[in-house]
Amino acid sequence: MTDTVSADDLPIRPELVGVSAYGAPQLDVPVRLNTNENPHAPSDEVVAAIVASIATEVSGLQRYPDRDALLLRGDLAAYVTSATGVNVGTDNVWAANGSNEVLQQLLQTFGGPGRTALGFEPSYSMHALISRGTGTLFTSVPRDAIFAIDVAAACDAIDRVKPSVVFVCSPNNPTGTAVDLDVINRLYEQLLATDTGVLIVDEAYAEFSKRPSAITLLPGRQRLIVTRTMSKAFAFAGARVGYFVGDPAVVEAVARVRLPYHLSAITQAAARGALAHSTQLLAAVDDLKFQRDRIVVGCRELGLLVADSDANFVLFGGFTDQAAVWRKLLEAGVLVRDVGLPGWLRVTAGTPDETSAFLSALTTIAQEPGVVTTATAVGQEST
Fold first, then answer.
1. Residue 359 contacts residue 382 (beta carbons within 8 Å)
2. Where are the beta strands (DSSP E) in 133-268?
3. How many CA atoms lie within 13 A of 187 on its CB side?
4. How many Cβ atoms from other residues are within 10 Å of residue 102's Cβ?
5. Cis-peptide into 171, omega within 30 deg
6. C-alpha closest to that of 94 among 258, 239, 299, 340
7. Within 259-315, where are the H helices?
8. What Rg value do the Cα atoms of the chain yield, rounded?
9. pLDDT digits (tens, 9 = 90+) for 219-264
10. Which of the two ends of the chain, N or C, has the fewest CB atoms closer than 10 A to its terminal CB?
11. Does domain 66-263 fall into CATH 3.40.640.10?
12. What is the average per-residue pLDDT within 204-232?
């Protein structure tokens, strides 16, 4: 090896030049509240069940797995049916390695060169990144002052852009705000009128929301797709299991782009073992919602701005320099997320002790002169 080169010196696609890889800081600190994970590990009973499920597959690892993951998809369909009241069958569900791979497969199917994806930002940054990775042009409509979707502006953009894919994240990441079903339906009807694309509702945090799922809108709407994950509420982030629910025609279309045997036998077995104990794995959801609400109340008592959250995280702000606050929290042993919104930070709901540690550190920092903008007043309504 002689001269050192960077990735930008290689003959990569032009749209990848100068781009940084996605990823939150992975730092070894006492309190990690930056990636919206469920902090509660599976119980010994659930661990044993998952291990037993995996063990049944180990002796057959010389063979490829079920490339269509039919048993896993059937278990996911049963869970969704129970959770939403909508009759969902195996042929309505597709599974992959995390919801990001699900989104990638959907964009490989419906996006691509010469096609456009439309989002409403601030929102999940991977929507734009995966669009770019599949050669899909990404454009967005800004959300309003309370991080809600401006329906009139959204419908106008759909009519003007005629996108192949429209992304709606509900609850929205990083703001935590949920989208009403009537808004989703308005956007779907507008998109249907253009006859150009599909509407993808990203419900990664659905189990934390008090709103009904967009899955309830699926009957009769063949171009509506709802993506979900087992990484958040299920405390299963390390296993990388995501899925979507939609019309069987969508499943058939996505199967045309998926890599063969994309879900390993181990992944499928682990997920099936977890789904068999979904009640135990989801038992911590109510406590996480309680911790989330503790954070909301605590931040507002400090005079900070807080976005109403239906997820397992809170967007809080009103800072003159959010990067400086992020560093001060890190120095106090608490890792949160700087999502790139000036004046705002995002924190995950953790265990009771983690929540207390965060609020204690934030209280000390917020009382320092100049940290909170003078325009932010105690008791101000959330944004």
1. no
2. 137-142, 165-169, 198-202, 224-229, 242-245
3. 31
4. 26
5. yes
6. 258
7. 265-275, 278-281, 285-301
8. 21
9. 999 999 999 999 999 999 999 999 999 999 999 999 999 999 999 9
10. N
11. yes
12. 97
The interaxial angle of helices 98-110 and 125-133, nearest 10 deg, is 50
pLDDT tens column, 328-359: 999 999 999 999 999 999 999 999 999 999 99
Query: Which CATH number is associated with domain 23-42+283-366?
Result: 3.90.1150.10
Gap between the Cα atoms of 235 and 39, Å rounded = 7
Structure confidence at residue 376 (pLDDT): 53
Strands (E), the chain: 31-32, 93-96, 116-121, 137-142, 165-169, 198-202, 224-229, 242-245, 305-306, 313-317, 334-335, 344-348
> Is residue 93 a contact partner of residue 228, using CB atoms and an 8 Å limit?
no
DSSP annotation string for 88-147: --GGGEEEESHHHHHHHHHHHHH--TT-EEEEEESS-HHHHHHHHHTT-EEEEEE--TTS
**Residue 271: helix, strand or coil by DSSP?**
helix
Give the type of residue at 6. Answer: S
This model's pTM is above 0.90: yes
Residues 185, 224: contact at Cβ < 8 Å?
A: no
